[in-house]
Design brief:
The complex is a heterodimer of chains A (about 400) and B (about 350). Chain A is of the alpha/beta class and about 400 residues long. Chain A is built from 11 helices and 14 strands. Chain A is globular, with a radius of gyration of 23 Å. Helix content of chain B is about 75%, strand content about 0%. Chain B has helices at about 5-30, 35-45, 50-75, 80-100, 105-135, 140-160, 195-215, 215-225, 225-230, 235-265, 275-285, 295-305, 310-315, 320-345. Classes of the chains: A alpha/beta (about 400), B mainly alpha (about 350).
Chain lengths: ~400, ~350
């Protein structure tokens, strides 16, 4: 009997060891110094998605003692033929990087490959859901952290700005390609717009037109995507007087600025980068933007001190001040073309959000009429993240055909 | 001036020196230290076994594409559609992988099928450009460019539509294949596949032999030099053009298959990686001679990989490699033009 107990104990011990091994351990803390290697998909000064990461990482190394930054931009096979993101990450490691940030969805497979091949190095896969335990992928990678900002709020605010500005009741959304992320962002704009339309303007929701046109990619590829300038132009010429952009480049704003110069009353809302509104002050209502700095700083610290734990974080705005560079992951910069009334409406909306207003809440149907959220039911993070269709009331394609 | 070999070599060395000089001026204008830039470029390409193997990884598709282009250039065609042929090759090869993924077929056979499918796809796409030229009277440059766009659009549609991954359709491409279906590498850490290198070397040897020692090659040359005369001498001109398109597409498709099976292990949006356009540069630079295509392609691949160090170490834009490559091609073409004129003047 005693032997039996011994064997059981032994087996248990082995099983526990196995479990611990499978779970794996986080890489060793780096102590007082840490070199971070940042990979960006576009140019570091693109006034868009990549620059937001660049600025964020720079903010973080400035605020974390002992941290330093090296980086490589234009990480994509079109700009760097024959390279893979994991290979480029290794060239940053060769220069001393112990933590690598893969900052774009483009790189997610390579980030996983790299994390598996280098269990001794820290990896941040920004914008991804690879290690989200409640997500659909849920990989077990002890050296990876997912960081994302709750841009849904920024987009809702954009929707409010659009609804409070439009004279025609027609809002256009210039969408990139169709996937869960772009669907939920377009839908967030719609939810914000509808809310302001009904609750602030007291107008009939059926009189609000919201149309999404997808160009097919994050930026214009002549001959392949629809031309975003053309799409924006079509919107403006068919009665849509506000175009909200979901793509990485600023064509909608450029076009709106041009038409404003010709005396038309049209407006645009760009995306991603806090200063994007500077490129067309006369027509910009504002810009929802990412502020990656604070989250990066925290993750850097955890890699240095040893408190690193693989996790997924989806950070919202700081409701005390959504534009606080030290605390808010998502913000909204108001543009010069925003009217006083609309500006006040945005402040009111943000205050309501801060008090707990939830727009991702039932009753909400999907575009095809099927139920998405029951009356009073609040969407879970998973329901929002993996939104399968656009919402009822929105025009435009829900899936690529 | 005599058209002797030493003279020609001298001219080429002069051209390289001129290109370097120009690039140095660009560096100085950008307030960058030229010496440090070149040093880092060199170290980045040759500094360790790892970067050398990265250079070779990039060399394989470039050499495959260049091999194909030597054939179309020989017959006097500008196969700009090469990018699309790489892409369609990659699509076909991904298609084969997807079809055979769960079939229980031996991984080696699946990979082989994927390569064959890639070659077929590239060849078909190239023949489309050929058919447009032969039967539709569409210049191959415009036809090819158009087909490049169509191929890219098709690729994106597949990645975000029918072939999208479960969950979120991603810029990262289709679901990566199981590692058992990756083209084997030297060791698990390495990206370099000896088989891929072997294929590329075989390709350039085949093209070299074809152009140098076969009737087929001779006739291709005849068509390229003077299609009308060749036709009158009994060479079926359009069939030869078509054949060169098909062969070039086959090599391009093979490059696409290598990208899928050996480099990315999935289909990605920019799967052709610009190798087609780069191959055009290499082919022009070597004046359509197969014998020196391999080392020049290697040099270009080294510049690509080496230039990654510039932004990391010197915060310089790495398009410098592109500037150097482009200038090199321009200067050499200019030098060749000047030489031809001088020879003409002297009545040689």
């Amino acid at each position: 009997m005693r032997n039996f107990a011994r064997i059981i104990t032994l087996l248990l011990a082995v099983a526990l060891c196995g479990a611990a091994f499978a779970q794996g351990a986080a890489p060793k803390a780096t102590g007082s110094s840490l070199t971070i290697g940042l990979l960006m998909v576009g140019p570091y000064n693109d006034h868009g998605y990549s620059q937001a990461h660049f600025d964020g990482a720079q903010y973080a190394v400035k605020n974390v003692k002992g941290a330093s930054l090296i980086y490589l931009d234009k990480v994509n096979p079109a700009d760097r033929p024959g390279t893979t993101a994991s290979q480029l990450a290794e060239s940053l490691v060769a220069k001393g990087a112990k933590l690598v940030i893969f900052s774009s969805d483009d790189m997610s497979d390579e980030a996983v490959k790299f994390a598996k091949a280098h269990p001794d190095l820290f990896v941040i896969m920004a914008s991804g859901d690879q290690v989200w335990k409640e997500g659909k992928i849920a990989l077990n990678l002890p050296n990876m952290v997912n960081v994302m900002g709750r841009m849904e709020y920024g987009k809702m605010i954009a929707g409010v700005a659009a609804a409070l500005t439009t004279q025609t009741g027609k809002i256009g959304y210039l969408g990139p390609l169709i996937n869960d992320e772009t669907r939920r962002l377009a839908s967030s704009v719609y939810l914000g717009a509808k809310y302001a339309w009904v609750n602030y303007l007291k107008k009939d929701p059926s009189k609000l037109e919201f149309k999404v046109t997808w160009i097919g990619f994050w930026f214009n590829i002549p001959g392949v995507t629809s031309d975003p300038t053309q799409v924006a132009d079509d919107f403006f010429n068919s009665g849509y007087d506000v175009v909200v952009s979901g793509i990485d480049t600023t064509e909608a704003l450029t076009e709106a600025t041009k038409l404003t110069g010709q005396g038309k009353k049209v407006f645009a809302i760009p995306y991603d980068y806090a200063d994007a509104i500077k490129e067309g002050a006369g027509a910009a209502l504002g810009v929802p933007y990412f502020n990656w700095g604070p989250a990066y700083a925290n993750v850097f610290k955890s890699a240095m001190t040893g408190s690193w734990k693989s996790h997924f974080e989806w950070n919202g705005p700081d409701w005390k001040n959504i534009n606080n560079p030290d605390t808010s992951a998502v913000g909204f910069n108001k543009g010069a073309a925003l009217s006083k009334d609309a500006s006040a409406g945005i402040d009111k909306f943000v205050a309501e959000l801060a008090k707990g207003l939830r727009l991702w809440k039932g009753p909400l149907n999907l575009q095809d009429g099927s139920a998405y959220l029951k009356d009073g039911q609040a969407a879970t993070d998973q329901q929002v993240w993996y939104l399968p269709q656009l919402l009822q009331g929105m025009q435009g394609q829900s899936v690529s055909k | 001036m005599r058209d002797s070999r030493p003279n020609r070599t001298l001219l080429q060395i002069g051209a390289i020196a001129l290109a370097l000089l120009f690039t140095t001026f660009v560096l100085l204008a950008a307030k960058a230290p030229p010496l440090a830039a070149y040093l880092n470029l060199g170290l980045g390409a040759l500094g360790s076994w790892e970067v050398i193997s990265n250079v070779l990884v990039s060399w394989v598709p470039l050499l495959l594409v260049t091999s194909g282009l030597l054939l179309t250039f020989t017959v006097g065609l500008w196969n700009i559609g090469i990018e699309g042929q790489i892409t369609v090759g990659a699509i076909f090869s991904t298609w084969a992988f997807r079809l055979l993924l769960g079939s229980g077929m031996a991984p080696g056979l699946v990979i082989l099928a994927a390569f064959l499918a890639g070659m077929l796809g590239g060849a078909l796409w190239a023949m489309l450009a050929g058919a447009l030229k032969t039967f539709g009277g569409v210049n191959e440059i415009f036809g090819g460019l158009g087909l490049n766009f169509v191929a890219t659009a098709l690729n994106l549609w597949l990645i975000f539509g029918p072939w999208k991954r479960p969950g979120v359709a991603s810029m990262s491409g289709t679901v990566p294949f199981d590692p058992s279906l990756w083209l084997p590498t030297l060791n698990p850490q390495s990206r370099l596949s000896p088989i891929a290198v072997g294929i590329a070397v075989a390709a350039i040897l085949v093209v070299y032999g074809m152009l140098r020692g076969t009737y087929f090659g001779l006739r291709l040359k005849a068509v390229g030099k003077n299609p009308r005369a060749a036709f009158l001498l009994g060479i079926p001109t359009w069939q030869y053009m078509m054949a060169s398109f098909a062969l070039c597409g086959l090599f391009a498709g093979l490059a696409g298959a290598v990208q899928v099976a050996s480099v990315y292990h999935r289909l990605i949006p920019s799967i052709s990686s610009g190798y087609g356009y780069m191959g055009l540069m290499v082919a022009m630079l070597v004046n359509y001679k197969a014998a020196i295509a391999a080392p020049v392609a290697l040099f270009f691949a080294a510049l690509n990989v080496g230039s990654i160090q510039l932004p990391i170490v010197l915060q310089l834009d790495s398009s410098l490699a592109g500037v150097l490559q482009g200038t090199l091609v321009l200067v050499v073409l200019l030098a060749q033009g000047a030489r031809t004129r001088m020879l003409k003047k002297e009545g040689l």
